[in-house]
Amino acid sequence: MTLYDQIDPTTAVYVVVATLAELPNGARKIVEVDGRPLAVFNIAGALYAIADVCSHDDGPVAEGELDDHEIECPRHGARFDVRTGKVMSFPAIVNIPAYPVRVEGENVLVGLPPTAA
Ligand code: FES
Q1: How close are the terminal C-alpha atoms of the chain, in Å?
Q2: Who has the most CB within 10 Å: 25, 78, 80, 91?
């Protein structure tokens, strides 16, 4: 897994991952872009995207329970802030990628690092 805490939104390559209609308030969508699993969340009207890969044991994290802005990995309970990818509790100790999100018309786009897009 490529580890980085934040991508420069000005150099990211934006890819359409959903429509606004697919992401009403409280919804999430899990997608794969170039083999990279991502999850996009609408929390109180704001959109966030993280890698759907737990840094503890590479399990999918995005189907876990969401508490405010924290997602709990369904496998062993590590928690991450979906706004930043920052790890919030054990057993994970490494942050996961968080991606910039942009809306263009009805489309939701996620910004990926230029070399990975
Ligand atoms: S794989 Fe996520 S906490 Fe272990």
Answers
A1: 14
A2: 80
Distance 49 CA to ligand 1 centre (A): 18
Q: Is 54 in the pocket of ligand 1 (CB under 6 A)?
A: yes
What is the DSSP code (8-state) at residue 22?
A: G
CATH number at residue 60: 2.102.10.10
Answer yes or no: is the C-beta of 75 below 6 A from any ligand 1 atom.
yes
Contact 108, 45 (CB under 8 A): no
Residue span of the structural domain in which 34 resides: 13-112
Q: What is the pLDDT of residues 24-61, one digit of tens each?
A: 999 999 999 988 899 999 999 999 999 999 999 998 99
The answer to the question of residue 4 being in a domain is no
Question: pLDDT tens digit string along 96-107?
Answer: 999 999 999 999
User: Is 60 touching ligand 1 by the criterion CB < 6 Å?
Assistant: no
Residue 2 belongs to a domain? no
